[in-house]
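Deliverable D5.2: sample structural annotation.
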Amino acid sequence: MQNNQGVKPVGLEERNLNGVDFLLLWAGAAVSLAEIWAGGLLVPLGLMGGIAAVLLGHVIGNTPLALGGIIGSRTGLPTMVSVRPSFGVRGSYFATVLNLVQLVGWTGVMIWIGGQAAQAVWPFPGAGFQGWAIVTGVVTTLWAVLGHRFWKWLQRIAVTGLVLLCGVMTYVLFGQHGWDQLAGSPSSNSLPFMVGLDLVIAMPISWLPLVCDYSRFSRNTSTAFWGTWIGYFLVSSWMYVVGLSAALATQSATPDSVVMQLMVKVGLALPAIIIVLFSTFTTTFLDIYSTAVSFLNIWPELGERRGSILCGVLGTGLALVFPATAYEAFLLFVGSVFCPLFGVVLADYFFLRRKGPPEQPFHRQDLFWYSAGFNPWAFVSWGAGFGLYHLVQRATTVGSSIPSLLVAGVIYLCLMAIWKPVAEMRPATLTAGGQR
């Protein structure tokens, strides 16, 4: 593998993923114990209020996710390189560092949840949770290292099996706790509906910094968009509702473990452990691989394989010390950072560059230089959106995700229209050949 493969566009011969592949890829991302757990956070809304938040939140959050994928499918470039036109070459490093933090964080969260659930279903002899966490981290890292040609078949087999097993899991849950019982669970005022909506929107938004890493391998834009949107919407909504229902029935803070224990109770321990392990693999390898790809935007010499191994080691280590009480705060942090950031990126691509050629040379080091490699207006707009997110979240019950995304995008378009940076080319004296 060449050192700069993660920066240059993928060739046409590498673009071999179709709509079914994307549907299964993002369904695999959504078949996650973390999503079941997140659904449990919506308990104060009650069953019907929680389901309304789940469906509306996924409609809202999935749309920018799939739109972001369009950029990768047209340019053949990973997400962090696609940030360059709006934030500048060096400005994209800011987004990259934030993304590396959240990806290692998500890797740790996913391995922690998977390890805890596996231990509850099938105790690891002598090592307990730590043993399952290490096994899960090693296997998931190897899955990421294999490369996208192998994922295509691994995902088809694993996700198809997982969906069938999750159907059994859902049947067991509602067989033990009927719909009438769940619908009768009272709601409370401890979680405003719009804040609950933010907790749902944050999940698809957390995938936005990764989406182009996979859509760049698409055969065409339409299948990448709809495969991403439909695959994630259907399965993520399903997992949220399962988590909400399990938490309502038992008032447990860990509905993922509750569901697994129900399966063990009815004699389905083996299917339960398969769901735990493979749902962790199909979701977490995306975080590990994208950490490696994001690293290439700053440090192309690292290479995808070494980057994946580094993330796997860091994420597994984090899982061993991760505090469960930090999960809700982590979700809201992700939303506050990436909603306004991608408000800027999407506004730049779909409004400022809509008349440009489909295959735009975002990877060139001499383009989008702005001021010393930074576009100040992108940072001003992001800062305004970031501040608005936290201000609205603390002061009102309106919800923060979409206002921060829209406001950041609108401010960016206004600033770029009034004070468009003049110099977008790196001075010739500072570049050697114009590319990495």
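Annotation notes: The mean pLDDT is 84. The two ends are 15 Å apart (CA to CA).
The annotation will be released with the project's public dataset once the embargo ends.
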